[in-house]
Amino acid sequence: KIEADGYHLPVLEVSLKYHRPALYDDDLVVTARLAEKPVLRIKVQYEVHRGDTLLVTGTTMHAFIDHEGRPVRPPPYVAEKMNEVFK
């Protein structure tokens, strides 16, 4: 819906820390969450686990842009949802 409405969320920054290696055929669980209320930029935090073992932590930073690549505020329905989630 966001892209259909003319918005995009390119990756601006990536940061990773490898704690342990993943092995071939491992079943991995990737968790992504917003740790803080986004304003103009959205920071997503990630964890990758194999069972109880933490393998990787990381973050990505994103920003809303329009179809011409200009920074814009998020669409109203996204801002409303963020206000609900981050009370």
Explained architecture:
It is a single chain. By secondary structure, the protein is mostly beta strands. The protein has one domain: Thiol Ester Dehydrase, Chain A, CATH 3.10.129.10. The chain is built from one helix and four strands. It has one helix spanning 76-85, and strands at 11-18, 29-34, 41-50, 53-63. Strands 1-4-3-2 form a four-stranded antiparallel beta sheet, with no helix packed on it. Strand 3 and strand 4 (53-63) form a beta hairpin.
The strands making up the biggest β-sheet line up spatially as: 1-4-3-2
Distance between the termini: 24 Å
Number of strands: 4
Give the helices and strands as they follow along the chain: EEEEH
- The CATH class is identified as Alpha Beta
Specify the CATH homologous superfamily: Hotdog Thioesterase
In the CATH hierarchy, what is the architecture at level 2? Roll
Which regions have little confidence, pLDDT < 50, spanning 5+ residues?
A: none
**Outline:** elongated
